[in-house]
Amino acid sequence: MRQTQIGSSGFEAGSLGFGCWRFLGHDLSHAETLIETALDLGMTLIDTADIYGFGDAGFGAAEALLGEVLAADPARRGRMVLASKGGIIPPVPYNSSRANLIEACEASLTRLGVEQIDLYQIHRPDLLTPWEEVAGALDTLIADGKIGYAGVSNFTVAQTRALQAHLGARIVSTQPEFSALHLQPLEDGTLDWCQETGATPIVWSPLAGGRLGEGYSPQADDPGRLAELHETLDRLAALYDAQRSDVALAFLLKHPARPIVLLGTQRPERLGAGRNALAIPLTRQQWYSILETSRGEPMP
């Protein structure tokens, strides 16, 4: 699999990664199969968060299950770039105060059963904590060896730059929602900032919550452009003997910011199918046809 360096860090990871948002409710055997399949396919970035599991199996459940997988075979830890996130503590929406971030990170380390998290990201921007304080917590976690590198998730470019202004370490990643249906990172400067600084975009919900997958039919409350976007993706899929989801992922992977695209399927066979996107050489015209269909208007 094509490798992507994560910002200015020393880590490389496959251009497809495994997201643990739905990594819940499995027995250990199935959880091990998912992680082993991802690693064997070259999906070496394993992305989780302390909040994953809240409202279902409980706060921290996804991290705890991943910790069981690592404990069952400690050699797996050396095969992955381990990423997690903190800063959300229900019922308070966001808390990135120094004390909370350090406590949250230490709790994640315990659940995961590791000494260091390779990439630790602020999950959502806390509007009540000064950026200087957030930066101080991250610098402390790096200095103490509890995290290797710092990143952000769901931040605006202005928020990211404000944090970076106080941070001794470089921000090596940003994690936006991005898909052929959700184009905001293309339009709000996020992907331009990544190319400006060398940071890596780590994309979540690349199939728009399944709406760009094969089994989804547009509903009455879906954006009107979804059916047309399906038609464009399906037409291109036929040209490449591929599936709609393959083309939707190829659209993201073609961007020069070199994103890492997270797959969240809990079916091992679907992880393998996701690699088909890497073999689709979308032309410039084809890429722009997807963009125009999603926007509902031609390029100016």
Automatic annotation (TrEMBL):
- What does UniProt give as GO cellular component? cytosol
Q: Where is the NADP-dependent oxidoreductase domain?
A: 16-290
The name this protein goes by in its record: NADP-dependent oxidoreductase domain-containing protein
